[in-house]
Amino acid sequence: MKNTIQIIHQLASQNFVSGEAMASHFHVTRATISTWVRELQGYGLDIHKVRGKGYRLAEPIDLLDKNRILSAMNASTRAGFGVVDISLETGSTNETALTAHYTDQRWHLYSTEFQSTGRGRRGRQWVSPLASSLMFTLSSKRQWSLDLLYLASVLVGLSVAQYLNYKLNKKVQLKWPNDLYVDGQKLGGILCELRGSPQDEALLVIGVGLNVYRAPQGTDREATCLFAQDEPCLDRSSLLAGLCERITQDLSHATEVGVSTQLERWDELDFLKNKTINVHQGEQIISGIAMGIDEKGQLKLRDTNGQVRTFNGGEVSVRW
């Protein structure tokens, strides 16, 4: 895929590019270019081929641009980033962040057009159509409060949902513990990971996947995307910059004043609230009514016996 995806830049101008010109540029044969084009088509890109002219994308493609991302951030946010790494392809942005070298507390941002081994919660694979979503990781190594580390997925979910609802006039809801939903369909998800001791400097890694222009097919739940019916009002680079700004600012605020204020906002965005759900805990299934979350970010459930029980996100999965 690494070589294949590079020709997107050649095709993105909307002008026809000959197979011979691309073959010369990449020092390969025209047959190899033809193979790469078919592979891109297999990943969902619509590429026109005209004899005597060459190839071009049927529709414009919105590739992430590092300079646009940085210029869309305000100066203070921009200064808080030590690394901004935008790649065409990677295995997993979370894995890149986990293995990176950190010299100070500034944030690292890793984003990509295609993930070959993206991960979701409980080891599930996260797959998204090429150049149609946002897949990014924010990471920072510093002394974090225990409350923030424990509630990271919840806090980041709140930041993302509130930003999208305000900026794009959406009605994004949060499905405990870390999924984003619109109109009953999955829009994205969050995966937070921790390395090191919370008593010392710990590395917090925040992975976010968001369907922007297209929704993945063949998922266990029906999926949607931000611009399923609306004309895009933001390019992906500006959207990524805005999300990074909101997440890092909200986490900074939570560090200064505590997490309780942000948690109070969960109730109005709670996708599961008052729904009848099944909580799967190993071989056991507990049924009941979802009643929001507690101060630790745990799911509250009123079971069939009327007892209110709490569940940790790392231990269970929820069906409804």
From TrEMBL:
One BP term from GO: regulation of DNA-templated transcription
MF terms (GO), sorted A to Z: ATP binding; biotin--[biotin carboxyl-carrier protein] ligase activity; DNA binding
Keywords from the UniProt entry: ATP-binding, Biotin, DNA-binding, Ligase, Nucleotide-binding, Repressor, Transcription, Transcription regulation
DNA-binding region listed in the record: 19-38
GO-annotated cellular components: cytoplasm
Pfam family, one: BPL_C
Top-level taxon in the UniProt lineage: Bacteria
BPL/LPL catalytic domain mapped to chain residues: 82-259
Positions annotated to bind biotin: S92, T93, N94, Q115, R119, G120, R121, K186
Catalysed conversion reaction: biotin + L-lysyl-[protein] + ATP = N(6)-biotinyl-L-lysyl-[protein] + AMP + diphosphate + H(+)
Alphabetized InterPro entries for the sequence: aa-tRNA-synth_II/BPL/LPL (IPR045864), Bifunct_BirA (IPR030855), Biotin_CoA_COase_ligase (IPR004408), BPL_C (IPR003142), BPL_LPL_catalytic (IPR004143), HTH_11 (IPR013196), Transcriptional_repressor_C (IPR008988), WH-like_DNA-bd_sf (IPR036388)
Enzyme Commission designation: 6.3.4.15
Homology family: Belongs to the biotin--protein ligase family.
The protein's role, per its UniProt record: Acts both as a biotin--[acetyl-CoA-carboxylase] ligase and a biotin-operon repressor. In the presence of ATP, BirA activates biotin to form the BirA-biotinyl-5'-adenylate (BirA-bio-5'-AMP or holoBirA) complex. HoloBirA can either transfer the biotinyl moiety to the biotin carboxyl carrier protein (BCCP) subunit of acetyl-CoA carboxylase, or bind to the biotin operator site and inhibit transcription of the operon.
HAMAP family to which the protein is assigned, alphabetical: Bifunct_BirA (MF_00978)
Name recorded for this polypeptide: Bifunctional ligase/repressor BirA
Lineage: Bacteria, Pseudomonadati, Pseudomonadota, Gammaproteobacteria, Oceanospirillales
